[in-house]
Design a protein that fits this description.
With about 950 residues, the chain is of the alpha+beta class. The protein contains 41 helices and 16 strands. Helices cover about 55% and strands about 10% of the residues. Strands 9-10-12-11-15-16-14-13 form an 8-stranded antiparallel β-sheet. Strands 3-2-1-4 form a 4-stranded mixed β-sheet, with helices on both faces. A 4-stranded mixed β-sheet has the order 5-6-7-8. Strand 5 and strand 6 form a beta hairpin. The radius of gyration is 33 Å and the shape is globular. The C terminus is likely disordered.
């Protein structure tokens, strides 16, 4: 048997010397009466050689961890090491343990590497896919050999995906299973009976490959589609799976599989020869593959397991290892991830180009029914129709008709068509035609605005295609700067450009009524807005200055003032767009951080908004922005707060007093609640209605008010000192906890401490004291993974913990000292500059304390405990968590019921709170004297 040469591996014996290993295995059982019994000695030899090989491979990798080729070189070296290891084990097994001087045909075995191992690519912690190829059924001798080899590999801690099959079984399974077919397509002879492997290869090609090209092509594309749906349809998710996600390694491997199946190509150069990739495309393929492998190997080493998801906490270290530095408004991590997202984008472009060429050569044409334009039509508004997709004859078409670089997307949008992939590639190559003169062309800007503000189809698909082609970034250069721009936090889920495009799609859904249940006010008022163009452009530009030094809202407004006149906007329209961009966070910050029952809050907000038109536009923009952040970001609480702010500001701007119609609003709620409580005695209903105050009645939807009413009445009838109610919202991934208990000094802090003890994170809270002196506090909580707490045992534990804390607060809360502060380890990756803002102007009756810091276990408890120490009473609290960032606002008074205005006292409060926010401090502040919090 000849060893397969690997000229691509340098100094092979320094990784693993197979001859030395073979001799060491023989020596381990030399003189033994029963070599089968010396498994410990054999295992020790194998572990030593494997450990040395791994150490050498890692040493080579870490000697130059930034080199573009380091990842793929490591993958080849790891595969080589495993090759030599398995060959040595096989030889030892068949010569020392189960020797056969003259094996029969049925007792011959071929060891075959399949799957990724078959490609001779193994990441540090990848699975090893191994096929024991047999002539016929498994004989007793073959079974002994297979079992021993597998046990030795498993004993080494290797993850082995294995099968033992005859040629007939392999062929039969490949015909019925795409995964097996693909795995066997990459089969590589490893060791054993090579003639048997050669026989398999011939039959496999003849019976499974020949004549099946189009079917395989379509099956792999469908498999790719399903995989993308599973791992997320966007290649711009901020924690991407670099192997299975859209734009990851698996997409490149899919192209290799198709190329191998159709052309028998083992290399990218062969695909160039076949005309399915250009030399430039091959270079981009090679560059993308090398970069993804480099990331993957770093990820495996850092996690010490086969991890493929590039999570926030690991991105920091990989950015450091690869030498990224902070630069021009982007930190090192954001620059790393921008490189990754541009690579993923390049993979998408390569896939599109590759598929176009393959379809031209191998895929039969089929008529696609196009009801709006007929079956036989071959031309549409100056563009060709190729398989139901818009096309041009060649790249030179755009030199003669440069406006078609935009117009083709408008035509595709109007008729719900796609762009033919080769035409798409030509568009990407011709974006240089979009220069300053092009951008100033009124006709080009008119086409762009038609795409952006289309009523019938919406802009999302068209704008995303333009972005993929590079047209959007050339036509709006400032948008080009945020393409693949990461927002390094746990709140946002997508890059800036992808977030913006999603927001445009959500705006269109609001207009069409698709979100009427989730956002009823926005759905109503969007049709009262005077200028749709203003709103769509404001959504387009609201984050356009992200990644620059300075406030992106202010910088974005300045960019809007420059761009809007070019788009044909009047001076008034331009001013409105700029105002919306400058203030696009105003409504959410007010709704989520301020007391909407305080007249000063509404008045201050209304004075900034000034008009109903701006209020309507700002509401719709805010809803679209929040919903586009990512799944589960929008919830009923946020919708209710925005609705309350809108309604109260609308009333103020309509000319009345701040709460001129509030009594009517409350009366309406109480009348409806009376109807819901019709099964109660009338006297009990009135008693309950007397307990509440306007701020409470207007803070919850009717189903929650009814739920509270029944909770309160049951507690009063039973004489319970404490009632705890849970409502699990799996869709919003949170648990709503309602607590009805006699109010006391320090209650908020104690309840927050109870949640912290159970590992629950407070994401929102509403604090109320009813007229009967009882507290009715409502918290939205999540577990450490950001999910709802819903198991009965968990809820029972939470109730018991609340009871213990309220019974013996100092003793019970002392346990918090021993718990790690960070429930979610990812939050460690996000340093947040601590900030404490104390404002005596925002409210007429209270001092407002706004605290920003990195979220951690027990933070609310620690902060409220400090307020307790400072002899303050909490009248209201706004608890908000935006990913890793906590923004908590407290409305407080001193012990005499007055605002806190003395400078020394304000300084003491701020200093104490900043100490809590400081990194590395224990949560010791939560178990001190619980005085003053009401």
């Amino acid at each position: 048997m000849n060893i397969q040469t690997r000229p691509d591996i340098e100094k092979q014996r320094e990784i693993l010397d197979r001859r030395a290993l073979t001799q060491a295995l023989k020596d381990a059982v030399a003189g033994s009466r029963d070599p089968h019994a010396d498994t410990a000695a054999v295992g020790a030899v194998l572990r030593e050689h494997l450990a040395l090989g791994r150490a050498e491979i890692r040493r080579r990798f870490e000697a130059d961890p930034r080199a573009a080729e380091s990842g793929r070189r490591l993958a080849r070296e790891t595969s080589f090491m495993i090759d030599q290891l398995i060959r040595a084990i096989y030889d030892f097994t068949t010569t020392q343990l189960y020797p056969l001087s003259n094996p029969s045909e049925a007792e011959k075995i071929a060891l075959v590497a399949v799957g990724g191992y078959g490609r001779a690519e193994l990441a540090p912690y990848s699975d090893i896919d191994l096929l024991f190829l047999l002539p016929y059924k498994l004989t007793p001798h073959c079974e002994q050999v297979v079992e021993y080899i597998l046990y030795r590999l498993w004993d080494l801690g290797l993850k082995v995906g294995q099968s033992a099959r005859s040629i007939d079984e392999c062929i039969g399974r490949a015909k019925g299973d795409l995964t097996i077919l693909t795995s066997l397509l990459e089969a590589r002879y490893l060791w054993g009976e090579q003639a048997l492997f050669d026989k398999f290869r011939k039959r496999f090609h003849k019976e499974c490959v020949a004549g099946q090209g189009e079917a395989f092509y379509q099956a792999k594309l469908n498999e790719r589609r399903v995989r993308h749906e599973r791992f997320g349809p966007s290649r711009y998710a901020l924690e991407p799976n670099i192997k299975e996600g859209k734009g990851g390694l698996r997409d490149l491997q899919t192209l290799r599989w198709i190329g191998r199946f159709l052309y028998g190509s083992d290399t990218i150069d062969k695909l160039v020869d076949e005309g399915v990739l250009t030399r430039d495309a091959a270079h981009r393929f090679d560059k993308a593959e090398a970069y993804l492998w480099l990331l993957r190997c770093h990820l495996h080493f850092l996690r010490e397991r086969g991890e493929e998801k590039l999570t926030f906490d690991i991105q920091l270290e990989i950015a450091r290892r690869l030498g990224y530095r902070d630069h021009a408004g982007n930190n090192a991590v954001e620059r790393l991830m921008k490189h990754y997202f541009l690579t993923a984008k390049s993979v998408g472009e390569l896939t599109r180009f590759f598929c176009t060429a393959v379809e031209a050569q191998h895929v039969k044409r089929s008529f696609i029914r196009l009801p709006s334009i007929g079956l036989r039509k071959r031309e549409l508004e100056g563009f060709g129709l190729d398989g139901g997709r818009l096309s041009v004859p060649n790249a030179k078409h755009f030199d003669k008709h440069p406006l078609d670089l935009l117009r083709i997307f408008r035509v595709a949008q109007k008729h719900d068509l796609d762009v033919q992939p080769m035409t798409f590639t030509w568009i990407a190559e011709k974006t240089r035609l979009i220069d300053r003169a092009y951008r100033e062309n009124p006709e080009a800007n008119a086409i762009f605005m038609k795409i952006l503000t289309s009523r019938s189809k919406g802009p999302e698909v068209a704008v995303r295609r333009m972005n993929e082609a590079g047209v959007f970034g050339r036509f709006v250069p400032d948008f080009g700067r945020v393409v693949a721009q990461m927002q390094f936090d746990m709140y946002h889920h997508f890059t800036v450009d992808e977030h913006t495009i999603y927001a445009l799609g959500i705006l269109h859904k609001i207009e069409t009524g698709e979100l009427s249940e989730e956002a009823p006010i926005a759905t109503r008022v969007v049709h009262e807005i005077q200028s749709r163009r203003v709103l769509y452009v404001a959504v387009l530009l609201h984050d356009i200055a992200k990644g620059r030094k300075g406030d992106h809202s202010i910088l974005g407004a300045e960019l809007a003032e420059q761009l809007c006149p070019r788009l044909g906007f009047t001076e008034d329209q331009t001013e409105t767009v700029a105002w919306l961009v400058r203030n696009h966070l105003l409504m959410s910050n007010t709704a989520f951080r301020r007391d909407l029952d305080d007249p000063a809050t509404i008045q201050a907000f209304a004075e900034q908004v000034q008009s109903m038109e701006r209020l309507r536009q700002l509401l719709v923009l805010t809803v679209a922005d929040i919903r586009a952040v990512g799944p589960k970001t929008w919830n009923g609480w946020k919708a209710q707060l925005l609705r309350d702010l809108f309604n109260r500001t609308e009333e103020f701007l309509s000319g009345g007093l701040i709460f001129a119609g509030r009594e009517r609003e409350v009366d309406k709620v109480l009348a409806e609640l009376r109807g819901k409580l019709a099964d109660w005695p009338a006297e009990d209903v009135e008693v309950h209605l007397e307990r509440g105050h306007p701020g409470y009645w207007l803070s919850f939807p009717m189903p929650i008010l009814e739920r509270h009413a029944r909770l309160v009445r049951d507690a009063e009838l039973d004489g319970r000192a404490l009632s705890v109610d849970f409502r699990v919202d799996s869709w919003e991934a949170m648990t709503e906890v309602t607590i009805y208990v006699p109010d006391r000094v320090g209650l908020v802090s104690q309840l927050a401490g109870a949640f912290a003890l159970c590992g629950a994170s407070i994401v929102e809270a509403r604090i109320f004291t009813l007229k009967n002196g009882k507290a009715l506090d409502v918290f939205a909580i999540q577990d450490s993974e950001g999910g709802a707490i819903e198991q009965p045992t968990q809820l029972a534990r939470l109730t018991a913990t609340i009871e213990r804390v309220l019974g013996t607060p100092e003793q019970t809360l002392a346990t918090l000292k021993t718990l790690p502060p960070h429930v979610n380890p990812k939050t460690k990756a996000f340093p947040v500059a601590p900030r404490v803002l104390i404002d005596n102007k925002a409210s007429a009756a209270y001092t407002l304390v706004e605290i920003t810091g990195r979220d951690r276990r027990g933070l609310v408890h620690a902060l409220t405990a400090v307020l307790t120490e400072q002899d303050l009473r909490i009248a209201n609290a706004k608890i908000s968590t935006f990913g890793h960032r906590a923004v908590d606002t407290f409305y407080v008074k001193d012990r005499f019921g007055l605002k806190v205005e003395a400078e020394p006292k304000l300084t003491a409060i701020k200093t104490a709170l900043l100490e809590v926010l400081a990194e590395g401090r224990d949560q010791e502040s939560g178990i001190r004297d619980q005085r003053g919090v009401g």
